[in-house]
UniProtKB/TrEMBL annotation:
This is N-acetyltransferase domain-containing protein. One of its GO terms (molecular function) is acyltransferase activity, transferring groups other than amino-acyl groups. PROSITE patterns: GNAT. It comes from Gossypium davidsonii. SUPFAM superfamilies: Acyl-CoA N-acyltransferases (Nat). Residues 18-210 form the N-acetyltransferase domain. It comes from the Eukaryota.
Length: 407
């Protein structure tokens, strides 16, 4: 069960007319949902991706043991004009060294207040105030570092964090998106796929990602979470009779991954496309359904609400590793194909991770650089342990473990 810890002051006044406080479900749910709805309305005539949080504004951090959500109010009417979410977890920083890390996500400021000018021609700075207040909570609860992720083209977000809040550009993992088609994908010949029990999966992950960055210490909690659909291993069928998972000895070649579903977290929907684009996308879907043997690259029905499967813990070894990893990705695609409403299979990996080259994806839907920015909160904590500053250390491994709870 997720438990929140050490809340911030219930109503600290920061700036003229702006109050930042902890989210109260009974008081704030309707106001937060309305504000976020206004944020999701894109420019007229341009497509936009909107999210439905299924009536739970705090769902994106609820699965972390330490989490919080703050809201910003403005004016006598106490209108909610901003929100931010945060959590704290313990992760590796490389070489099996752990660090207490905070993660910031879901920062939103109402469009009508992003550039509001008040007396003396000063901006309200709602976004900055929300970040600063959340950082106070993170520091109070022992976080040594805090990071956030954003699209590398999101200049407003990058400027806020790097220029105004003193974050450093840190890592640029790649996000790969594969639409779920109407046809099934072939798994390849001579390949067996088995589901691993959570204990064995945990053992394999702790070994494979020991030197990586961002590997969560509570991986066991993730693997046993209800949103986790399982951990799967692909191996050549000829090795299957000889492989006994109880021995801990792995096959010469294998690939593993876990599948996380957002079905119970949020639904996505594309709005604002032209009728021609809509017609072309739906026509490709119809043709694929009628003639599945042609394996047409059909576009999923993203114009109604859909969810995604997030693939994490992707790792391969041996000369057949790439082929086995492709087979696993096809297996996950077929899982989504059988789950009506799943629109895409998504994976995020490090730029230099070998699996990056073999994960099937559509380039136009993917993101070559998802920018992660980081900031040190407690100065002197590394020096006490005789460690160098993580911000200035070279990565000890090309692997980055992307926590599925972060999406």
């Amino acid at each position: 069960m997720s438990v929140k810890i050490a809340a911030v002051n219930s109503a600290p006044t920061v700036g003229v007319g702006v109050v930042v406080r902890e989210y109260d479900e009974e008081e704030d749910k309707v106001g937060v949902e309305e504000m976020e709805r206004r944020c999701e309305i894109g420019e007229e005539g341009k497509p936009s991706l909107v999210a439905d949080l299924l009536g739970d504004p705090i769902c994106r951090v609820r699965h972390f043991p330490s989490h919080i959500m703050l809201v910003a109010e403005y004016g006598n009417g106490r209108e909610i004009v901003g929100v931010i979410r945060g959590c704290i977890k313990t992760v590796t920083r490389g070489n099996s060294l752990y660090v207490k890390l905070a993660y910031i996500l879901g920062l939103r400021v109402a469009p009508s207040h992003r550039v509001l000018i008040i007396r003396k021609r000063r901006r309200l700075g709602i976004g900055k105030k929300l970040v600063q207040k959340l950082e106070e909570w993170c520091k109070k609860n022992g976080a040594e570092y805090v990071y956030m992720a954003t699209d590398c083209t999101n200049e407003a977000s990058i400027n806020l964090f790097t220029r105004k809040c003193e974050y450093t550009k840190f890592r640029t993992p790649t996000m790969l998106v594969q639409p779920v088609h109407a046809h099934y994908k072939s798994l390849g010949s001579g390949i067996a796929i088995v589901q691993l029990n959570p204990k064995l999966a945990e053992t394999l992950y702790r070994r494979a990602f020991a030197n990586s960055e961002f590997f969560p210490k509570d991986i066991d909690k993730i693997l046993s979470n209800k949103l986790n659909l399982g951990t799967f291993m692909a191996l050549p069928k000829k090795f299957l009779p000889k492989w006994d998972p109880k021995t801990g000895i792995l096959p010469p070649s294998f690939a593993i991954m876990s599948v996380w579903s957002t079905k119970q977290l949020f639904r996505l929907q594309v709005k604002g496309v032209s009728m021609l684009t809509y017609a072309c996308c739906m026509a490709s879907r119809v043709l694929d359904a009628w003639m599945p043997w042609m394996m047409l690259p059909s576009f999923p029905d993203v114009f109604r609400k859909f969810w995604v499967y997030f693939l994490y813990g992707l790792h391969m070894e041996g000369k057949n590793g790439p082929r086995l990893m492709k087979s696993l990705c096809a297996f996950a695609h077929n899982m989504g194909r059988d789950d009506d409403g799943c629109g895409a299979v998504v994976a995020e990996v490090g730029q230099r991770d070998p699996v990056r080259e073999v994960i099937p994806h559509w380039r136009k839907l993917s993101m070559s650089e998802d920018l992660w920015c980081i900031k040190k909160l407690n100065y002197g904590s590394d020096e006490k342990c005789g460690l160098s500053d993580w911000l200035n250390s070279r990565p000890s491994s090309p692997l980055i473990f992307v926590d599925p709870r972060d999406i």
